[in-house]
């Protein structure tokens, strides 16, 4: 697949990037270089290769998925201009 100047102009328009007409040939060349690299990656045989999270084998750190209140109610409410009974107090906006 090859990208021409009209396609590069359309891609720039879709990305909301202003590209002047003299810069379109260079942009099309960059797009073609990227597509060439992707074609090289498609030639690599990855059959049987496990996905990796890092180049060194490690397990991802996981925490227990439990609901908590955070335990910081006093610290959070200390920043509030008005707090009552353990909650933020705000003015009434609907009658």
Descriptive key words:
95 residues, mainly alpha, two-stranded antiparallel sheet, 36% helix
Structure description:
With 95 residues, the chain is mainly α. It has a domain at 5-42. The chain has helices at 5-14, 24-42, 73-77; strands at 83-84, 87-88. The chain has a two-stranded antiparallel ribbon. A hairpin with a 2-residue loop joins strand 1 (83-84) and strand 2. It is flat and about 65 Å long. It starts with a helix and ends in a 7-residue tail after the last strand. The mean pLDDT is 89. GO terms for molecular function: asparaginyl-tRNA synthase (glutamine-hydrolyzing) activity; ATP binding; glutaminyl-tRNA synthase (glutamine-hydrolyzing) activity; transferase activity. It holds the Pfam family GatC. Keywords: ATP-binding, Ligase, Nucleotide-binding, Protein biosynthesis, Transferase.
Helices, strands, pairings?
Elements: H1 5-14, H2 24-42, H3 73-77, E1 83-84, E2 87-88
Antiparallel strand pairs: 1-2
Pfam family, one: GatC
Keywords: ATP-binding, Ligase, Nucleotide-binding, Protein biosynthesis, Transferase
Protein name: Aspartyl/glutamyl-tRNA(Asn/Gln) amidotransferase subunit C
Total count of strands: 2
- The Rg value, from CA coordinates, equals 27 Å
General form: flat
The helix count comes to 3
Beta fraction of the residues? Answer: under 5%
In the sheet with the most strands, the strands line up as 1-2
Helix content: 25-40%
Largest sheet: 2 strands, antiparallel
Low-confidence stretches: none
Order of helices and strands: HHHEE
User: What is the CA-CA span between the terminal residues?
Assistant: 63 Å
Decide which structural class fits the backbone.
mainly alpha
Subunit structure: Heterotrimer of A, B and C subunits.
InterPro entries: Asp/Glu-ADT_sf_sub_c (IPR036113), GatC (IPR003837)
Enzyme class: ligase
Keywords: ATP-binding, Ligase, Nucleotide-binding, Protein biosynthesis, Transferase
């Amino acid at each position: 697949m090859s990208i021409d100047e009209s396609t590069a102009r359309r891609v720039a328009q879709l990305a909301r990037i202003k590209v002047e007409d003299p810069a379109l040939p260079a942009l099309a060349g960059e797009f073609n270089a990227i597509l060439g690299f992707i074609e090289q990656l498609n030639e690599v045989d990855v059959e049987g290769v496990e996905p990796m999270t890092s180049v060194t084998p490690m397990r991802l750190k996981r925490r227990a998925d439990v609901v908590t209140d955070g335990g910081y109610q006093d610290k959070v409410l200390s920043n509030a201009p008005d707090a009552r009974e353990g909650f933020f107090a705000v003015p009434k906006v609907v009658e």
